[in-house]
């Protein structure tokens, strides 16, 4: 179903922005994995509102609570339910949304599909829904750490509008990403991005950009042929995040400007292993990891909520002008970095378990 | 599982390039849909090798046979199995593949995953696997025609290397796509592309490009929130095709260069319906169709098989030089056009049935 | 995954007996169905401990809370999460379970499978897990009421040990079932059953029996051929309940004592409809409902927890003697009646939606 | 979907009785398992018509062909497609079925569900559909042999009508089952059953009975809690076979006549392992295997096709009299024995892979 993801490490998220709570259940987690609320909280804090001056000031603590599946600090193989209650919900800030469809939001399409919608703060289409994903991914990372101790997932802001950072997926470090509030590991460009976002916000406008993600240390053999190719699953995972418009892996769209003789990754023996000399494949060939660094980019559009007057229609089918209120991110990218990381971890953990099920090893 | 796709209109493909046959079963198809082998064959002929001078000369007729699920010309609600027997298989043309890993192919990763592989002509990773998808999609299109008679899916070559066509997704016609062998509806650019592909082939090289797909006439309300967003499902479907490196919908990566005030699609009433004035969203908002034209682009890398000597390693872990033989496409795009169309039809048909199941209408 | 059930109306339960909470999320529910916590509570109260003198005195209120998916009293098409916090948990009452495997319980097998277990009160194997099922089924019944207003599901105790009631599935009423604490609609036999259960409890022993379930008013056409036959899904649903040992539908095991000429259900026209003269098929033919009353029986073994000394082994592999403490049902049947009903409702609702998805009607 | 089964070892069957072919694809099979058409054929021959004087004389060879997924005698991890073409199809023998609904068959319900049906020989509801299951199970058994070399699955006829054999599930041998044409390992009772079936056939009548299945050598830990309990999956698998009316495991319905103190299986150490002294649980506790012999019984109704005149209605809703022609089994049990065995093997293989995926061992 639509709010479930994963074949063997299967998550189900629930919750609206202004309902009682958001959360997740994780089914199929291996037993005896150490996990605590504090570890989950660490990741939630990275996506939480109010963490810096360039994100929404909504004052949510997003304190998580594990309701099941963990006993004396370890997973026991049964579903792990994690819940975060909504605290700073101010539905009154969104009263105009009851009657108007916000441009480039999901108000109209939810109404068209279901004939009803929770209009408070975006409802199910709110980015608050990703809390469940990030919580589940904190568990997935612990599983991955046991399977492939060298595995590292590092996502970062590659560009904001036309400001593009130079980052090497082979060497970028999480500490450099977390060193600034925009989560771009190139410090000089990060400063420019922060200034740019502040300026855009002061204009009541918003801005988008690209997040790149590098995954190092994935053993060869994870992934599947045909429909569930690892890159296809990553593409789906990324495009399932709010505000995304594109995905590319390895050489991506730019790879179409090379000829085969330029683009192919020659094999060679290195350190006793089959390796590729270049990595235009982005670490995946035929849907299966080849041991090289997996790296991909995801495009995020400018935040749909802006503080300028916008033409729209209301639920009665009349022209209307919307002036947004409430608390919103002028740029989703800083908070989307841990979401990208989370979705990558979920896809990898699921495929690690699938691989072990069919082939007996990880 | 990996060779299955779809939740309600569910397909399972099977078959290797040089095994006995390739095919598909379709489970969950509505009953009483008229379908014939001839209709399926029409679509298979568009993806078949040997159809023009710029594609592989492998001489496969790819004659399909319906084995079940159809009675007196109509679907009966039970699984529809369609099979195409492999005829012009010449495994001897691929004997070097038994011992060598072809660069940027799936030989090494399949070996790493399974510890065994059918090395003849790419095995399961061959584009022959898509025969089953195209056959299933021919059925999906008949279902869609019943649900949304105005629905049209038109895919076409948008670019080959740096040759980019100007095409309007709102008005492009299938007849213009099929008017030339490269399947680019802009005739002048098509001629240039054809010349370019011939030249590349004469150099023993290969080339990639971008396929765009326009879907007109989708009613508002198809798709799902969260993980199975319509764009996420399309992204996965496209990235599951061989040789793909990227996907973008609507404004795509270029959308990151706009501010929210420029990017948002204002709503207006038009013809009695809620419509958007622009369509940067690409016809989908929050994972659900909004009634506008859905359009997206998929990047295909240059064909991995080239006729120049390439450095690689063999299965014993020794350096080796590969000189490809056999019959290959210098550019996959002309034959990938019907594959893109097919995957789009399968995703839409599945979501039409899912929508009807949950919400009662199509 | 193991804690998920249903294809289109899909539920995920979570929770251990003595963890923080038990609950469920329902994904795929049709929108605009009226549902309240009070309606769910009504069904939960029927399965709750402490409701009568012949069930466990554990004092759980089992107050449910809807966390998502409902807005202004109606479903909105997104996942509905319902949670019940564990209140009267006394893990100290179960300390012997930390070291000993209780006979005919799941302690040993959970330990063998996972290498770890929540030994407090049965953990995930506790019947408390069914709270989520009953809550989800309360929603399923509301959906069914909209699809087939005449549909009625009535489960009841058919036998306790050798005390067998005579009940007509065609006419039995819920009010008669609820008229006594053992939930057997035949009053005289119910009184005997109650006396017998009390006596068995006074001996520190336990007892089982059979629950029959009648489903009237199912339209012809629900269900599926082959693997997901309606009777197969019902069998799985019933055998997924704790303490079950058998399932039979229509004529059941006794049907093997008839010849075909005696067993076949002749068709006839009645009230303008195709009807069967007898109903040995139990309302389902070839996996699909035929419009007759669906009825089936489920066998429940005697409660595994008894208050007599039992030989067993401990986790160190040494012989041990177990003397159970805590609060337990001497006979699970009275509280299992709403569980049977719930599982039947979930299976039917799922198949109603599946049928509508594929065939367009309900 | 309805013609698919299994989570990790996933099969999709297709085919009608009188369409072009019946078959199966198996997705998720571990690689490097040796399998040949001859091995599959051996099992198909045990379910094939015409094999003895007490089954239908339909002269089908049921020759199988592997179309994919096997290379040089071994599985390669990709879908294995196996097909059997229908040869001795005589649709003219069934012409009365075009207009009449056969009592206790699926003609009416398929028509009610789909509004169309392949009326020739039962279509999808024919027992010919089980060919795909038996073929897939031949592969599953090879996988199981690698995982648990001591594992044995032995199914046998326990009763025909009121003729009940005494068989010990702990010691029954396949050779004894195959020693006679009714597949009852108790020779004296087998002879009586054969005589009885012949007599019933001579009367134009039919008869049912019970098949028991013993599975020895399953390691502790296979299966899952909650919905996919091993017994629940077996129940569904058995009730998905044509003509089944009931399922019971271990003590089954008779277990309801015992008290807890009589029914509980005391644990003891035996040969260094945790074992149960009795086995009323039937080898499964809480949904998970405990290492004891798994045994269960499935009730098969008398064959619905009889050669006596039967009252029914036709497709126009008029009373009619049906006189069956064609070739039919007077008793399905001898040919259902390999079907029961097959479904058991499929369930176990799926759960072995699921267990390995989540817990890392088999």
Number of domain modules of chain A: 1
Query: Which second-level CATH architecture of chain A applies?
Result: 4-Layer Sandwich
CATH topology of chain A: Chorismate synthase, AroC fold
Strand tally of chain A is: 18
Q: Give the CATH superfamily of chain A.
A: Chorismate synthase AroC
Point out poorly predicted stretches of chain A: none
- Secondary-structure element order of chain A, as H and E? EEEHEEEEHHHEEHHEHEHEEEEEEEH
Overall spatial form of chain A: globular
- For the record, what CATH class of chain A applies? Alpha Beta
Largest interface comes to: A-B, 111 and 111 residues
So what's the oligomer here? homotetramer
Q: What characterizes the major β-sheet of chain A?
A: 5 strands, antiparallel
Give the radius of gyration of chain A: 21 Å
Estimate percent helicity of chain A. Answer: 25-40%
Strand content of chain A: 15-25%
Number of helices of chain A: 9
Spatial separation of the terminal alpha carbons of chain A: 28 Å
Describe the protein.
The structure is a homotetramer of 362-residue chains. By secondary structure, chain A is of the alpha+beta class. The first copy, chain A, has a single domain, classed as Chorismate synthase AroC (Chorismate synthase, AroC fold). Helix content of chain A is 28%, strand content 22%. Chain A has nine helices and 18 strands. Chain A has helices spanning 37-47, 95-99, 107-114, 130-147, 174-177, 187-202, 230-239, 260-263, 333-359, and strands at residues 4-5, 10-14, 21-27, 64-66, 70-71, 74-75, 80-85, 152-160, 163-164, 209-216, 244-249, 267-270, 273-276, 284-285, 288-289, 294-300, 310-313, 319-322. In chain A, the strands form six sheets. In chain A, strands 1-2-3-7-4 form a five-stranded antiparallel beta sheet, covered by helices on one side. Chain A has a five-stranded antiparallel beta sheet with strand order 9-8-10-16-11. In chain A, strand 2 (10-14) and strand 3 (21-27) form a beta hairpin. Chains B and C meet through helix 9 of B and helix 9 of C.
